[in-house]
Structures are given as C-alpha cells and as structure tokens.
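# nightly structure sweep
# worker-07 picked up a monomer target from the shared queue
# config: single-sequence mode, recycle default, output format = structure tokens
# input follows
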Amino acid sequence: MSPFSLLQLISFIFVMGGIFTSLILTISLFRNRQPMKIMNAVWILTGLWASFAAIPAYFRLGYRKDRMVIGIGNNGMNMDMNESRPQWHSVTLSTLHCGAGCVLADIIGEWFTYFIPVSIGGSVLIGNWLLDFILALIIGIYFQYFAIRQMEKISARKAFIKAAKADTLSLTAWQIGMYTWMAITHFVIFSGTPLTKTSWTFWFMMQLAMFVGFFTSYPMNILLIKAGIKKGM
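# output follows
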C-alpha cells in the first residue's frame, strides 16, 4: 500500500469515526442530559472533530462529572457542580464549548464556499478562512450567550456583552491554532496537490487542525477564567 493510499485509509477511519462517535454521544445524551443545556450540542460537535478520543473524554467529563452532584462547602452550604469540579475539568469543558462553535462554523463555511467560492484579494483560501472566522465568532458568541443566560439571571443585553468578551479571545486563539495547521497542510504537506473539500483527507486534516486549536485555546481559557471574564463550565 502506498503512503498516499494509507493516508486516505487513515483519513476515512477517523472521519467516519467522528460521525460514529457523534451518533453514540447523541444516543447517550438522550438519557444523560447535561445540566448546562448547550453542552448537549457541544459534546455532539466534539465527537465530530475529536473522533474516537471524544468517547473517553465524554465519559470522564460529561457522563459522570456533569451530573448534578452536590458538594458541601466550608460554610455548610451546598455548592454547585462547577465549584466541586476540578479546575482542569472546567477549563477543558470551556475550551470544548469554544471549539464547538468553530467546528460548526467550519462545516457550514467550507461547504458553502465549495458551492459558492468567496475570494478576497484574489485568494479563495483567505476568503474561506475569513468566512469561517466570522461564522465561528457568531456561533461561538451565541453558544456562550446561551450558557450565560442559564448560569446568570441577567438581561439579554448584558449576557450578550459578557458572551462577546468571553468568547472572542478564546475563539480567536482556537482559530489561530487551526489556521496554522491548515496553512502547513496547504502550503507544505500538500503544496503540489491541494486537497479537495470532498476528500476524506481534507476533513481528517480539519480534525487535526481542531486538535491544534484546542491546545492553543486552552491557555487562553485559563487566563479568561482566572480574570473572571469567562466562567468555567
């Protein structure tokens, strides 16, 4: 088997694995609804890009830890689930929440530009990335707004402003990591034979780009949560 054929096979396995994982999580979430409602969509979208890795992550952070387990604080009062959760759990879930908007935006944006190319400065690639970023920002802020409205009893206007502050930097950090990997893919790995959006390999590279985005966004989420700009999930 040639290296190219092997890559196609690996790509097929992981992309189909993402679809299969997303279906498994969807079935599980019918029985195990998340206390934070938007996290139901987040886990399903995480399954698409994280593929098989999303299953152990879900059963560690979602299935067991996201249940409404009440702890007892020092003052004898009940704490909510976020306060009794280890910090890295909250940061990880917040980062996955950020990535869910990115992956949904990329799916919509990439297929939209497949049928209707968008060019900026003569570059279709830049047009694609700019559209993906705008969509990610819109969807990401909406996801964050939805979470804030459930966590805090504040007006829609204040919730929107908080959502924009919370998600803009973390989402931008995610997109920087994702675009860095896709630039390497486009200009280095497949410079001679650009990938088509209908290929398994293109979407496998997108999955890898999401992993890179997760790791570039994670430190930003730590900073935002510590600064009180963003609440941990």
